[in-house]
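Much of the work behind modern protein science is quiet bookkeeping, done one molecule at a time. Below is the pair of lines this work produces for a single protein:

***
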Amino acid sequence: MISPLLEVGQPVLVSGDPDDPPEHMTVDLVQDQHVTLSVAGDRNLPLAWRELPEVQVTCLGRFSVYMIHVPVVRSGETRLVIGPPLTAAAVQRRAYARVAQPVPVSCTVLDPDSEQWSAFDADVRDLGGGGCSLLSDVTPPAGASVAIAFSIDGDVPFPVVGRVLPREELPTIGKPLTRVEFTLIRELDRDRIIGFVLHSLASREPVDPHFG
């Protein structure tokens, strides 16, 4: 089943071969077990795609990145009809995508005792539609509220409020890693994050995202 993962209007990356740059596509139609994808922008699909038996679809959910190997049902100039994955192993789920370029942010954490917000410096290591990981000298406790202002696409920054998740023993680069789940975010801003992450994944060659 891929329909729970793919919804009409959702942006995705589609690759015919892991070594080829992916195509930016959009879910155009979900019907029965078939999903129609359309090319983003005024472009055509490569001619070689007419003969592809299967493709890899990368999509970003609120909390995970999915890489799905699916058979091609039909291929046209600007559209691709795909079927459901043949096996359960064809759907790979990974937590938070690690973006290639820096993510400009400013962060503050709420002290529950004083009810005061304190700023701290942090680098984003992983980012998804539903949360991110922060690398910082500051280690907010589990359950703490964190406000993050993102400035990711050349537009005005936008604020997101999140909750610190219980800490896990994860590899770090000399600093603790804090996982944050977004609890207050506009859907428009979530879409901006998803678009930014997909663009970052697409800029890599070969297209084989490293996940945290």
User: Anything to note?
Assistant: The longest helix spans residues 187-202. The helical segments are 187-202. Residues 11-95 form one domain.
